[in-house]
Design a protein that fits this description.
The protein has 136 residues and is α+β, with helices and mostly antiparallel strands. It has a four-stranded antiparallel beta sheet with strand order 1-2-3-4, with helices on one face. It is elongated, with a radius of gyration of 21 Å. 38% of the residues lie in helices and 22% in strands.
Length: 136
């Protein structure tokens, strides 16, 4: 019969190191993590993807992927981390600075309210950071 076009399903608990390559990822705090990357086929997307697997102690590994198979794995991790920072910023603005409480529909007033909300959030984070550094 016909030879298989794609390999076996990826088992993230025991990676096939003949398919994956290892690299060291260093984050902005200088913490180094050994991660693994490979180009695999996604049945759901019906295309090849670059997948990045970063093991986490006592938890499931972190999985990142990109449909750009030529993208460096460090860049994929960076994009995901930036995205999560943006999402957490929006969540905090909604929760603590009443981002969603504006009743106006005027574009300029909404711009002002959004800017005020995010400015207040950033000022609070900076003040909290300084207080933590003082009492360390």
């Amino acid at each position: 019969g016909r030879k298989k076009k794609y390999g076996e399903k990826v088992d993230f608990s025991t990676l096939d190191m003949s398919v994956f390559t290892s690299f060291i990822y260093e984050d902005s705090k200088g913490i180094k993590t050994r991660c693994h990357t490979a180009v695999v086929h996604s049945r759901a997307l019906k295309r090849d993807i670059r997948i990045v697997v970063c093991p986490v102690e006592n938890a499931d590994p972190l999985l990142y992927f990109s449909t750009d198979t030529d993208m460096r794995p460090e860049k994929i991790i960076g994009f995901y981390r930036t995205r999560f920072q943006i999402e957490f910023g929006i969540r905090d603005a909604k929760q603590f600075t009443r981002l969603q409480s504006q009743q106006t529909r005027d574009r300029e007033r909404l711009d002002f309210a959004f800017n005020l909300s995010f400015t207040a959030l950033n000022v609070c984070k900076e003040v909290i950071g300084r207080i933590i550094r003082i009492f360390r």
